[in-house]
Here is the input.
Amino acid sequence: MRFVIWLILCFCGGSVLAQEGYRLKVSLPDNLKSLSRYFSISKEIKDSLEVYKEADKLLSQLQFRGYLLAEITDLDFQGKEALVMIKPNQLYQWVQLSSGNLPSAVKQIVGFRERNYEGVNFNVEGLTQLFKTLLTHYENSGYPFASVSLQQIKIDTGAISASIEVKPNQKFMFDTLQVVGSAQIVQKYLQSYLNTKNGTLYSEKAISQIENSRTIPSLIVLIDIIKALDI
Here is the structure.
C-alpha cells in the first residue's frame, strides 16, 4: 500500500512540476535599455517552444518602432528562466512621406500632413493606421475595392522616403432595394432610413449598420442594391 501511495505522490509531483512555466528576461545594450518600456512580455510562459515565440514577438515590437533590423543574438535557458539577448541595430526614420496621388480633399478629411513624417522614427503601427483610415474613407465613399500602397520607396543609411498611391478602382452606387416578405413598408422610407437612396454612393458603413441593426424585421432582405458605374 505504501508503494502505491508513493507512486501516486510521484506522479502528482511530476504533474505539478510540468505545469511550471518559464520566465523571460530581456537583455539590451546599455545605451538602449530604455527600449524595454516598449516590451509587453507574458508573466509566465508554459514551455520552451512558447519562449521562442515570445522572443519573436519582442523583435516585432521593436521593428514596429523603427528598428527594422533588430535581431536576437542569444537565447539561454537557465532552469525555468530564459534570457534573450537582443541587438536593436539601426533606428530607421522617415525623411519624407509624400502624399503622392492623394487628392487634397482626402488629405484634409483623413488629417494627413506630410510634415508629420519628416525626421520622425519609422512606425509600422502609425503607417498601418493611416492606411486603414484611407481605406475606410474610400469604402464609405463609393469605392469598396480601393487599395493603398507605398511607391517610390528609398532607403539610405537609416532614412526612408516614399509616396502614397491610392487606387480607387470601380465606383459603386446604391440602386434598388427590394423587400421580401409580407411587411408593409414604403420603399422610399426604408431607403431613407437605411441611407441607401437610389443614386447615393455605396457605403460600407451603411451596409454594416443594416447587418447589425436590431430594428429591421428579419423578413426584410436587401438584394441588388448596388450597381457599378464607369469612372
Observations:
- The chain has a mean pLDDT of 78.
- The chain has six helices and nine strands.
